[in-house]
Queue: 3 jobs
Job 1
Amino acid sequence: MPGGLLLSGLLMHANEEVLASMKPKQDEHQFQLTAQQVKAPNLLAFDLRQYTFTSESVSEGHPDKVCDYIADSILDAHLAKDPHARVACEVLCKGSNVILAGEISSAAGVDYDQIARDAIREVGYTDPTQEFNADGVRIQQFITAQAPEIARGIGDRIDPGGEQGAGDQGIMFGYATDETPELMPLPIALAHRLGQVLARDRHAGVEPWLRPDAKTQVSVLYEGDRPIGVSSILVSTQHSPDVDRNYILEYVTSRLAPRALGDWYSDHILFTVNPAGSFLQGGPSADCGVTGRKIIVDTYGGSARHGGGAFSGKDPSKVDRSAAYFCRYVARQVVLHGLARRVEIQVAYAIGVAKPVSVKVDTFGTGDAREAEEFVRTFDFRPAAIIERLNLLCPIYRKTTNYGHFGKPGQSWEV
């Protein structure tokens, strides 16, 4: 045997033995996996089944998320008074300017200026020395009524079958995997947890130097389609000028990560913290924010496809939002019923038509594809049926804005 092939064979054989010792245990009654420590040299394994997948999350103080939160706050304010309001609200924030735009038809009277300022204040932008602060911003409104043709397509003129039509054409996806208890991909789940714990520490004053803007990123090592360890973590957080960079590093590695990662924490994780150096100016004071620009953060962190439609600021007649929520709900049912370990569902609509153009199911070889498809087709994907089943005409959307629209308890699509 040539020397190169012999060496390769020995390495692969050794690697298989290492992997066998690293495989996580799985309780036969639960989906939860127990993390194993991953030693750095093993991350360069020769087994082609191994790969690293990375997902990111952003805090509520990220410029785009500030816009999403304002938009969903306006949506909830309308739904609280008029459950059948038609809302499509877009927000742009830059410096001391907040621009509200879109199309809203509602019987409710809503103070947009006050709602926007309250949302900004809740996020934590209250420092008058910063250009972007709740009391100092200038708010401009460019909001008109919903276009009559769209209104007729989904309400005033129902489709030929006598049903509420879809609010727009488009494709939506839903996804579920048994690799975490919440049936979410592990990288995005952990990235969200890091951001949530960071935000809790800031709001509680545990670390008074923390400021609202932050991003987190988690890389997970997989064998096949199963996670076996966390390889690296990146955290960039805005901070006050009086904190030492080494202190921030120590906080992230010793106090933030162990709490957020739980069993997935390991001493062998590679940490990168504020790699660009100081992060004093953040949020819309530094960067322009716009609604709908964090669609991968909002969903599955890149582990599943995305139809392109954003969520925030849209009432549930917009299938971009409601059908994506329902696809997630149905995907969860497929996994919970044991029909597949991993599944993705696609649905497509034509504007003004209730019945979907198509529904597709992909189990990625982890279950009975035919049985899963038959099961999915027992669900009613018409917009009115989705809205009723998930109880979507309520002011629930501010709770969805940050740290993912999926995987959080208490939401009707997560049961």
Job 2
Amino acid sequence: MQIKDSIVIVTGASSGIGLSTAQLLARAETKVVLAARNIEKLAQISH
């Protein structure tokens, strides 16, 4: 399955499996939409 240039929504992206998944997808040149309950923590990792 090719994910390059896809758009993927990751929930729980501020920690744990969601964070790891978001990082992996970003390295694979995928456009990643991050969603999380903790906006402050999400802002720290999204830069």
Job 3
Amino acid sequence: MNQIAYKLLLLFYLTLFVKLNRKRFVIALSFGILSLILIGNSCSLSYGQDVQGTKFGRVVPKIYPHDLKVEEVFLGLHFPTRMAFVGPDDILVIEKNNGTVSRILNGTISSRPILDVNVATKMDRGMVGIAVLNGLNRTYVFLYFTEADSKDGGKALGNMLYRYELQNDKLIRPKLLLDLPATPGPIHNGGAIVIGPDGNVYLSVGDIHGSCDVNVTRSCHTVKTKTQNYHNGDDVDGRAGILRVTPDGDTVGSGILGNSDPLNKYYAYGIRNSFGLNFDPVTGNLWDTENGPYYGDEINLVKPGFNSGWDKVAGIWKPNGTFNMGGITLKPNNLEDFGGKGKYSAPEFIWSHTTGPTAITFVNTDKLGKQYQNDLLVGDVHNGRLWHFDLNENRTGLSLKGELADKIANYYNETAGIVLGDDFGEITDIKVGPDGYVYVVVYSKQYGEILRIVPADSTPKSPEK
């Protein structure tokens, strides 16, 4: 939250109290409270414990379709960010500030973490990404975290993508695949990892607060690179994009945008921050969620060379200072296209207000019912909401009707038809398990948990703690 704004407003209203009579002061104070609410609600998404993780308390999710229900799988995690399946009833879960990977096997968590590394923890920094790749008689585990110099909470050395091997309930043989910047930070680290249908590793990385905001951090040092759409910007350094590497960390082919390193590792760019990546199981297309500044949260279809437009556009609006959206720009110009290799396309869905979309997944199963098969689910952290979208016939966009036909959600009433559930808390991950059911990670300091969505007529499993 904007601490400077709070302090200035407090000083202002103390001065008014001295100078105004009581009636006028009460009127002025009312407007002040409204201003504080607006400032508080306009904060961009961050995983940090000083911003998130204590908003909802113990959650009791509501699922609206009568043919579905929510079960508790495991309760008692501390700031869990993501999970990955090793196999049926075999889950790896990561905790942001502990720098740990724990294993939950048949509902029972390992007595000790199977990995514990030193992580920087301020705001978005920490253990924030995991993916599993099974095959060739071994299991690779990919982890994305902000490595610290000596202990948890220490000085950030960089945002690292490592590959480990899972053997005998331990993660061994670490191999550093990517060493990415962590400054200026400490927000917009991204962190979604997904294994593509091509067997390669895809990682979302935000601008690391390079297009920084003095209203969020007192010390603000901008880093303007070409992947943030600055024509004369600094050299590309791995921020503000979706990176693609082989499981060994090598470049795939000669690169989409260019052959110099690390530009040759970019699959997409112009991304402010993204916590969600997933592939359509029908078409093989990549989709993402993205967080705007104080407006313009997005869902995007991500083709190779995709330019999301940041920081020249958020949603369909040109940024105009910190809090305000500027004019509509459907075809933004002056974007970096890397010699015609990059291509901008507008979002497939936009929230005009801050929602904080995070995980995105496709229900690639009929276990919940054929009416949900291959549909798109998105979670958020600001509302604790689980969103449900149908895709159009050729699966290049979302099937949106009525007031949403313009692809923009302007207020809650018009979104009722695309909300699958409420009161989930801060959703940071959604996965479809080997059993075909949907699993949801809830981020919380005290009540971090994994939930499961199943058919309403199924026999519930006993939750473990």
